[in-house]
Amino acid sequence: MTIEQQLFEGETIRLGPIDYEKDPAVESRWTHDLSYLRMVGRDLARPLSPAQVKKKYEAIEKGMEERNLIYYTIRRKEDNELLGFIRLDWIEWTHGAASLKMAIGNLSERGKGYGSQVLRLFLCYAFDELNLYRLTATLSEDNPRGVSFFKKFGFVEEVRRRKALLRDGQTYDLLMLGLLKHEWRRE
Amino acid sequence: MSRQLFRGNLVRLAAVEPEEMSKAMPRWNLDTEYYRMLDSAPPLLWSEKKVKEWIDKDLDKDPAQDLFFSIRTLADDRLIGFMSLFDYSGHTGDALVGIGLGEREYWSKGYGTDAMRVMLDYVFNELNLRRLTLIVFEHNPRGIRSYQKAGFVLEGRVRGAMQRDGRRWDWFWMGILREEWARMQPGE
Amino acid sequence: MENDMLKGKLVRLVAGDPAIEAQEFCRWGANSEYQRLCSTDYALQFSAKKWKEWFEKDMEKDPPLYHYFAIRTLADDRLIGGISLDGAAYPSGETFVGIGIGDETDWGKGYGSDAMNIILRYAFEEMNLRRVALDTFEYNQRGIRSYEKVGFIHEGRMRGYLNRDGRRWDMLFMGILREEWEARNR
């Protein structure tokens, strides 16, 4: 990583700020697919109206002002279309530790290599700019694609919270994957 | 149905009295060995006034979300610590539990394990959770042993989660499933 | 894999949006038959502004007072009503459901039972509840038939609860257990 290298520019995607005009409607649509919400987190999956998404964005920017979280939208360079998001939560500055979460919203946009571009950029940001020591990514065992995606970058399974999730009458383990700076595979 | 849910053999879980707790917590927090077992954030010393504001705000929240209890001795009704349930997810049936025994003389005497047993009974028989989770720091072997005695199983370690005193320490994640807890009960 | 949990055969459930719904709720409220099917409160007329205020206030709460969804037809994406589950569902694992379809011309077309099937699936497969209950008035024959069709079982009645049009009416209680729903749907 050099000072001239762009922190937020990938080959076909870029990391960007929230666009209050365009993004709420797009994200509202994603939230009506409960499998998207389930991929993103453990909260009760509930669809959001564009107005509710806007409120969420406001809370996110407030969190950023308070230095508790860092959030970027993922945008396609050619048309600035919103593709997803990447965020750091539970940032503990004195320990250099944070929780990482990312998602590509549209089913049809997954599997195109956007995720790899994003994570490659973001890990540089996390380790070379934020000077973090470690990152944690939490996923359901029911998301093997997500798990192998993170493992490609050097993440290792650290914690298995047994039967922590109950969905459609089935229990699933919740996995916590960790990446230490010195284990990070830059390529 | 007639057994006392909040009563153990050495302690009982009781309501938090904001006046009393806002005086006890700042005093306990001066003991940094205690504080550093409780919280990964660097110890900060807050006034009784500030702590009381937080307690009042906490108690104002919807009780179905998070719980906050005092731990009191059965022998002389002394306030010796607190217990809290947080990150409670109704639909997931899981929550995080935290315990802090502020009064040092009650460490290593079974008070913590007793309080945890009371909480487990409450969590599985009244809140109907499917499992209970906790985080304990690598530098707290006393805590780790106490939780294992209560039935918690080590589910993994978040490596180097904290840097303290010039070295890295892990976070231990421990969990107990309802079925595991049920098997431990007398008569099972 | 996309999850169609919120989509049924005739309708789909979407997030409520006060700005959109307030107008419709105000209009539907003008139909006193609709009001008297929905509520034990005496029939009144409220402005769209008032509806919007209520919606916004309820949706602001965290956790929400209830899980409200708007009902839209699949055929022409028309807003036809709302369905909601009471928010305080834990730790008991059970909750109440309420549904309202505003326009008389949309009654008796199967929209209600379709929406009810969607929300029961949501209640049992996402919220992981053990049972869902409802209460309804003895004179809501169409509603009662719809609930029976979906699998609700009669559990009791509060005799003479309502006083309307010079006579007493019972309030009926119905419920469906998780096992019963699973037996019908898996």
Note the overall shape of chain A.
globular
Average pLDDT across residues of chain B? 94
Q: Gap between N and C termini of chain B, in Å?
A: 18 Å
CATH class membership of chain A: Alpha Beta
Q: What is the count of DSSP helices of chain B, taking H or I runs of 4+ residues? A: 6
CATH homologous superfamily of chain A - what is it?
Gcn5-related N-acetyltransferase (GNAT)
> How would a textbook summarize the main sheet of chain B?
4 strands, antiparallel
Order of helices and strands of chain A: EHHHEEEHEHEE
| Number of β-strand runs of chain A | 7
Can you offer a commentary on this structure?
The complex is a heterotrimer of chains A (187), B (188) and C (186). Chain A is α+β, with helices and mostly antiparallel strands and 187 residues long. Chain A has helices at 23-31, 34-40, 50-65, 114-129, 144-152; strands at 13-16, 70-76, 82-92, 97-104, 134-140, 156-167, 170-180. In chain A, a hairpin with a 4-residue loop joins β3 and β4. The mean pLDDT of chain A is 95. Chain B has one domain: 3-Layer(aba) Sandwich (Aminopeptidase). With 188 residues, chain B is α+β, with helices and mostly antiparallel strands. In chain B, the strands form two sheets. In chain B, strands 1-2-3-4 form a four-stranded antiparallel beta sheet, sandwiched between helices. A three-stranded antiparallel beta sheet of chain B has the order 5-7-6. In chain B, α1 (18-29) crosses α3 and α4 packs across α5 (141-150). The model of chain B has no long low-confidence stretch (mean pLDDT 94). With 186 residues, chain C is α+β, with helices and mostly antiparallel strands. Chain C has one domain (11-185): Gcn5-related N-acetyltransferase (GNAT) (Aminopeptidase, 3-Layer(aba) Sandwich). Chain C has helices at 18-29, 32-38, 48-60, 111-125, 141-150, 178-185, and strands spanning 11-15, 66-73, 79-86, 94-101, 131-137, 153-164, 167-177. In chain C, strands 1-2-3-4-5-7-6 form a seven-stranded mixed beta sheet, with helices on both faces. Chain C starts with 10 loop residues before the first strand and ends with a helix. In chain C, 36% of the residues are buried. Classes of the chains: A alpha+beta (187), B alpha+beta (188), C alpha+beta (186). Chains A and B meet through β6 and β7 of A and β6 and β7 of B.
